[in-house]
Design brief:
Keywords: Signal. This is Circumsporozoite protein. The chain is mostly helical. The protein is built from 14 helices and four strands. The strands form two sheets. It has a two-stranded parallel sheet. Strands 3-4 form a two-stranded antiparallel ribbon. α4 (58-72) packs antiparallel against α5, α9 packs parallel to α10 (232-255) and α12 packs antiparallel against α13 (329-345). The longest helix has 24 residues, at 232-255. The radius of gyration is 25 Å and the shape is globular.
Length: 362
């Protein structure tokens, strides 16, 4: 009986110690002074505590982080507090379960500056070291989260010891390597088109002509060309397979930042670069709570330090479009116009970067 009492007291002490650590972001929320009326920060901090309880739905924590930005604004301290909540470890009892519950809703968090941040997990969880390293990294360099839930982002980056749930608490299936919604839609359309073309090639009366055309298209550029003879169905299948592989390679490159220029919704010609800007903490060995501006495209950012003044970065982006990106006249003009608007705006927070990106069609 005494041994049971000792074990129970140890379990309670462990849970209390872990929950003490998990409440660290609460003080940061209550300390926000850059926005919100009197008492708002304290109220939000008090409400956020319940989202860190073991029985809380993990999606509620992300909603609370969105609410911080919505009610306290996009000042550096508010953004840092919201990021801290997203990254916070939710209370976890390793004696009751061996995996944490993580939000599987791809729409949360809804605030762009919070996307791609992943949470800490209890050290008792399998492969926790990988996830906790990812969490620390994501606070200053968020992972790709386009169309993905926090749970999916974690799985895609090597941590699978989790249970994904939605807002209702129902289990959500997440699989390693799942593509973002936008990429999935693009692939579906492209692959469907390739499949339709393959079917048409198989059923056409000019099978011999189709066979020759597909074989020639599959040959890599070289000094000597080799003619390959195959059946029309095999040629069509090969063409469809190659198209699928190319789509997969393009998406893989885009996900890792190597995909080159992204298409602008405004139709501007930015050449080989994507002229977007970010506002994140911890750049250039600064504290994680000190937020600065920087170009997202590594080619554009090369040789330029992060800056507290967004106008330094907008000027750099426009210069690089001309100097190294081979941008067209429409892209250069759009950049100069956006630079003037940001200068006139005069803000220096997350909304500034968001405004810049939207002006350029991103």
């Amino acid at each position: 009986m005494q041994s049971k009492a000792i074990l129970l007291s140890l379990l309670i002490a462990y849970a209390e110690a872990r929950f003490g650590q998990e409440q660290e972001p609460i003080s940061a929320i209550s300390a926000v002074t850059s926005g919100g009326g009197p008492g708002v920060a304290a109220t939000l901090a008090g409400g956020a505590i319940s989202t860190l309880l073991g029985a809380a739905n993990p999606c509620a924590k992300l909603q609370a982080a969105d609410e911080i930005i919505a009610k306290l604004g996009t000042g550096a301290d508010a953004v840092a507090a919201a990021i801290g909540l997203v990254a916070a470890e939710q209370n976890f009892n390793p004696f009751a379960t061996d995996i944490p519950s993580i939000c599987g809703d791809p729409t949360l968090p809804a605030t762009e500056v919070l996307r791609g941040v992943v949470p800490l997990v209890d050290p008792a969880v399998t492969n926790s070291a990988t996830e906790n390293a990812n969490s620390a990294k994501s606070k200053t360099a968020p992972f790709n989260a386009k169309g993905l839930s926090v749970a999916q982002v974690m799985v895609n980056n090597g941590f699978t010891s989790l249970k994904a749930v939605d807002l209702s608490g129902a289990t959500v299936d997440v699989k390693a390597g799942a593509a973002a919604g936008a990429n999935a839609g693009t692939n579906t359309g492209a692959n469907a088109g390739a499949g339709a073309a393959a079917d048409a090639a198989v059923t056409t009366a000019a099978a011999a002509a189709a066979k020759t055309a597909v074989a020639a298209a599959d040959c890599p550029p070289a000094t000597v060309f080799v003619t390959v003879t195959m059946g029309a169905a095999a040629a069509a299948d090969t063409a469809a397979a190659n198209a699928g592989n190319n789509n997969a390679n393009n998406n893989g490159n885009a996900a890792t930042g190597n995909g080159g220029a992204q298409a602008s919704a405004g139709g501007f010609d930015f050449g080989t670069c994507t002229p977007t800007m970010k506002f994140v903490g911890g750049l250039g060995n600064r504290p994680a709570t000190e937020f600065t501006f920087q170009a997202i495209d590594p080619v554009v950012a090369l040789g330029q330090q992060e800056a507290l003044n967004p106008n330094i970065i907008t000027n750099r982006i426009c210069d690089q479009l001309t100097n190294v990106c081979n941008a067209g006249a429409s892209g250069k003009a759009a950049c100069l116009d956006a630079k003037a608007q940001i200068l006139a705006l005069g803000t220096r927070d997350a909304s500034t970067a968001a405004k810049w990106n939207s002006l350029l069609g991103f």
